[in-house]
Amino acid sequence: MNVTTAAPPNQDCIDRIDAALAADPDGVIEAIAAKAGATYADVLARLPAEAAPSVPGDRFEAVWSELANWGPVLFLVHTAAGVFEIDTALSPGSFGRGWFNIHGPAPLHGHIAAERCAAIHFVDRPFFARRSCSIQFVDIDGAAMFKVFVRRAPDRSLDPEQLARFEALRPR
Predict the structure, then answer these.
(1) 151: which residues sit within 8 A by CB, 6+ positions away?
(2) Which has the closest alpha carbon to 120: 160, 161, 73, 67?
(3) Mutual orientation of helices 11-23 and 29-36 as an angle, nearest 10°?
(4) Helix, coil or strand: residue 172
(5) For residue 172, what pLDDT is reported?
(6) Which residues pair with 93 in a beta bridge?
(7) For residues 55 and 111, what is the distance between their CA atoms, to the nearest angstrom?
(8) Which letter does DSSP use for residue 19 in this model?
(9) Positive or negative torsion for Cα 67, 83, 134, 95
(10) Strands, E assignment, 34-112
(11) What phi and psi, each to the nearest 5 degrees, are found at residue 34?
(12) β-bridge pairing 117-127 and 130-139
């Protein structure tokens, strides 16, 4: 259960976020947050409502379970030290010993502190002038935990089957 979350931004910070988004509307959210002196979550909150609706982090297991049925996705972790991408299916997970444990046939294995997940955003926005759809897990400090993107077809369009699953899962 999430008991604390990052404090909301003040008006000055909101103004900086809005200016950064206006200057780079399809830019990297982490870069926009850094430029504005804001958290990742603060920037997501300033996107148009239809661009990043969210559900509470306590839906972590349900959302992950759905994603485990999508086939190969783009799993991305973005830190100050690098951006790490893996094309992989997601194995089912389960809770044990305080972690959400991922084990299975897919190459991605590990342990997630799911109790730190404050919100799950269903982001549908342009990225470098192309539509991009992803499910982004945000922690209690307002930082991105990881992101799961709808894959692209060879022609760079979004995979139609995964896009349909994204749109069905996405809250309205």
Answers:
(1) 72, 73, 74, 87, 158, 159, 162
(2) 67
(3) 140
(4) coil
(5) 60
(6) 102
(7) 21
(8) H
(9) positive
(10) 54-56, 73-79, 82-88, 93-96, 99-102, 110-112
(11) -65, -45
(12) antiparallel
Instruction: In whole angstroms, give the CA distance from residue 13 to residue 17.
Output: 6
How many H helices and E strands in the chain? 5, 9
Q: What are the structure tokens assigned to 136, written together?
A: 């982004």
| Per-residue model confidence as pLDDT tens digits over 66-124 | 999 999 999 999 988 999 999 999 999 999 999 999 988 889 999 999 999 999 999 99
Rg of the chain (C-alpha set): 16
> Facing residues of 144 across strands?
138
Q: With cut-offs at 50, 70 and 90, classify the pLDDT of residue 6.
A: low
Classify residue 120 by burial, with Cβ atoms within 10 Å: 0-12, 13-18, 19+: buried
The angle formed by the CA atoms of residues 87, 88 and 93, to the nearest 5 degrees, is: 145
What the block records as the tokens of 147 is 């992101």
Q: Is the pLDDT of residue 28 over 60?
A: yes
DSSP annotation of 158 = B
Return the residue matching tokens 């972590």: 60
Q: pLDDT band for position 2 (50/70/90)?
A: very low
Q: Say if residue 162's pLDDT is above 50.
A: yes
